[in-house]
Sequence to fold (139 residues):
Amino acid sequence: MHTFYDSVKTVLSNAQSQVFRAVNFTMVEAYWQIGKLIVDEEQQGNSRAEYGAGLLKYLAQRLTEDFGKGYNETSLKYMRLVYQAFPIRHALRDELTWTHYRLLAKVDSQSARAWYMNEAAEQQWSSRALYTIEQRQQP
Fold:
């Protein structure tokens, strides 16, 4: 019976892990899309909009009213930053979390950012490990 239970437990654990990853990556994609909308629509493709602070403040207020915490101006700026760092959505790795992408977006070098992204995904680095390793590499 113990082996049977372990088999059932493994099936459920694997399913839960897959669900978590799918939901997490769906949110990463949603945040990326919001960043794209901010850049492409509200900013007309410019890296910074002259009126961006007002738009982000308005957007943050409305999103917070409709969806609750998590959509303040800082969060929206990260969404924009992640989109600008990863303008090709298909380049995103589904193994990584939003926190990974927020950290990766701060890496200036595109080649270093790609290396960190791939290593983090392939080596299954936590976001804390990515932060620690990336900080050690900074001059």
Observations:
- The CA atoms of residues 91 and 114 lie 9 Å apart.
- The chain has a mean pLDDT of 89.
